[in-house]
Design brief:
268 residues; alpha+beta; 4 helices; elongated
Amino acid sequence: RFVARQHPKASSWSPQASVNNDEKKTENGRKQRRVRIVHVKEVLEQEKMMNSSSSSLKMCSSKSKVVEWKTLMETKWLRFSSITYIDPTGEERTWDAATRTTKDPNAVADAVCVFAKLKSSKRETQTLLVRQFRPPMERETIELPAGLIDKGETAEQAALRELKEETGYTGYNAKATPCSMALSPGLSNETVVLVTVDVNLDEYEEDERGGEDKVVPEQELEGSEFITVIKVPLNKMRESLDSLNSSGYKIFAGLYMFALGLELNEAE
């Protein structure tokens, strides 16, 4: 009376098919486990980065502060000090520093560097460099004209004065950078302002044969200053510095970086 009915798919069942299904389930399970493991690793890595970022914020150098300056020795021009400060961890530390005794507290910086643009109707724009002996370096250096800002002077006034004294050239249209810049912050708190100055080279009669000034502008050097003036084409400034370096002169770091910046700007 009762007839056994077979499931339509029952006829396709076989031992091998069952094994294959089990293997697929096992492989799918492994893939899911691998996905979960990768996800867990990504979460752990993100947490690690967040903790690292949080830790670096706690150790931010802005939390450091100076506690005391102690003068150890002083000369007419320089003061040697020991600085006590607190680092971001709260630990007290000391640092040795050399500072100038001549700085006017109301001045924008200790000194000025002068970038002079020598403009001429007869030739390409040039600039002025100075060569002088620097005892700490035990050799001559190549620098921009520069000097200390006297009491009551603006950076622009100091730049025009120093340009005249060191090179003999008279400048005009002086423009100072809006900020003072650190020269060697690991050693000193000395700062400098860069001042651009124009020089009308047509005012100085030139020798057509050699392209040099017939009348060399007269320098106004102090007794202890021995400065040689060098004129170089602005578009070959770095090339000129490389040549001077090969000749044994030490190039001022800021000057070389400035020349490199001009070259990169031209390349772009």
